[in-house]
Amino acid sequence: MTLVAGVDTSTQACKVVVRDAATGALVREGRATHPDGTEVAPRHWEAALRSAVEAAGGLDDVEAVAVGGQQHGMVCLDADGEVVRDALLWNDTRSAGAATALIDELGDGDEARGRRAWADAVGVVPVASFTGAKLRWLADAEPEHADATAAVCLPHDWLTWRLAGAPGLEALVTDRGDASGTAYFSAATGGYREDLLALAFRDRTPRLPRVAAPAEAVGAVDPAWGAARGAVLGPGTGDNAAAALGLAAREGDVVVSLGTSGVVGAVSETAVHDPTGIVAGFADATGRHLPLVVTLNAAQVLDATARLLGVDHGELARLALAAPSGAGGLVLVPYLGGERTPDRPLATGALHGLTQRTMTPEHLARAAVEGLLCGLADGIEALVAQGVEVRRVLLTGGGARSEAVQRIAPAVFGRTVLVPAPGEYVADGAARQAAWVLSGAEAPPEWSLAEARVVEADAAADGAAVRARYAQVRDLTDGV
Predict the structure, then answer these.
(1) Residue 462 bears catalytic tag
(2) Which residues on adjacent β-strands are paired with residue 268?
(3) Which 3 state secondary structure label does DSSP give 258?
(4) Digit-coded pLDDT (tens) for 338-392
(5) Euclidean distance between the first and the last CA atom of the chain, given in angstroms as a whole number
(6) Residue 465: Cβ within 10 Å count
(7) Is the pTM of this model over 0.70?
(8) From the candidates 86, 92, 175, 239, which is the catalytic residue?
C-alpha cells in the first residue's frame, strides 16, 4: 500500500491524515492545537505539525505530503529566512483602513473606479483579510519591520518550506489557490501583479513564492521530519481550495462551510471579477476557479447563543426547531466579530423584534440559526449574480452538525442541501493532491471520501419570508 499525508494548518489547529494513495482509505490521523488570537508566531504552526505528525504515527512510510492552510495570512521573512514579526492571520482586522486606502489610491480618489480596477486586475477588491492590505498596514505602522522584509509568504507556503528544510528564500513555493487570496495575484492570468504589491507595500517588492502547477512536485520532505526516503512535497493550497478538492466538488456544487468563518465557494471554469468585492475571484487547486464569499461570523454565532442561553448545542438546536419559522419576527444580524461580507469590519450585531412573545429561549435560538443562514444565503445569491451555476449545496464544518442548521438551511438557501459525513476535508484535499503529485496523472485520483446525505428539511420553514425579514433588519441597522 502506498501512503500519502495531507496537512490542514488551520486557524485553530493542525490536522494530519494519512491515506492510501490509490483508494483514499484513511489509515491514521493526528491533531494538535494552535494558539488563540489573530497574531501568531509561525513557530507554533511548526510545533503543532510535529505534534500532529507524531499523533498520526509518523511519516516514515509516507511517500508524498501536501499542506492545506488558512488563507491570506502575512508571513514576513528577512534575508536569512527568519520571521520578522508574528504573522497576522486572515481574521486580524487592523488592516481595514489600509484596504480602504488601497481602493482609493487605485481609483484616484473614486471608490467605484478603484473597486472596478482591483476586480479587473486581480479578481478581488481589498478587504482587511487580504495579504496586500496587511502589507500596507505593516508599511505604515511598523516601517522598520517592512524594511527588514526580504520575502512574503502565506501560512501554507511557510510550512511547506519548513517541511523541505527551509533551503533558502528562492525555494519558497505556493499555488494558484492560495496566491489568489493575496490581492496581488490574478487567477485569470496566473501571474503576480508586482505593481500592486509595490503599491500595497509602499514601493517595496520583496521576493514572492514561485507559483507551482497544481500537481507539481516542488521538493522533498527533509529527513528531519522522519519521512520515507525521497518523499515528495506537493505545492499545497489554501484551505478553501483544499476542502473543495477533498469533497470532490464539481461545477454546480456550492460548498458552504460553517467553521471559524462562514465560506460559500463554487467550482467554476470561469474567472469572476466582482467590483463590489462581495465575491472574491479565487482559484481552486486543479487549474479552475473558486469564486468565494466569506463571512467572519459562522459557528461562533451558535457558540455565543448557546452560552447566553446556558445550553449545549443539541439543546440549542431543539429550542430553535421548537420556535416558529421566522422566530415571530425576531431577527439576529450576527455581526458579532465585525464582518467581512458585507465589508463592515467594525460592525456589531443587532437583535430586532423583541416583544413579550418573542423574548424566549426558543425564539432567540431560532433567530440565531436563521440569521447565520441568511448571511450565507446572501453569499449564494451573490455567486448566482456573477453567473455561477448553483444546483446543490454541500454543507460542511462544525456548525453544520447542528440539526437545526441542517433542517432550516434548505428553506433559507432555496436549494437541495447535502451534508457530507464529518471529516477533515482540508487535510483530505491536501492528501488527494499529494497522491495526484505522486501519480503524475492528468487529474486527481477518484477517491470516494465525501459520502453525503440529502437533508430532510423543516417542512414549516418559509425561507422567502425569513430572508425578506432578515434583509429588512440588516439594511435598517446597517450592521452597526
Answers:
(1) no
(2) 289
(3) strand
(4) 887 887 878 899 999 999 999 999 999 999 999 999 999 999 999 999 999 999 9
(5) 56
(6) 12
(7) yes
(8) 239
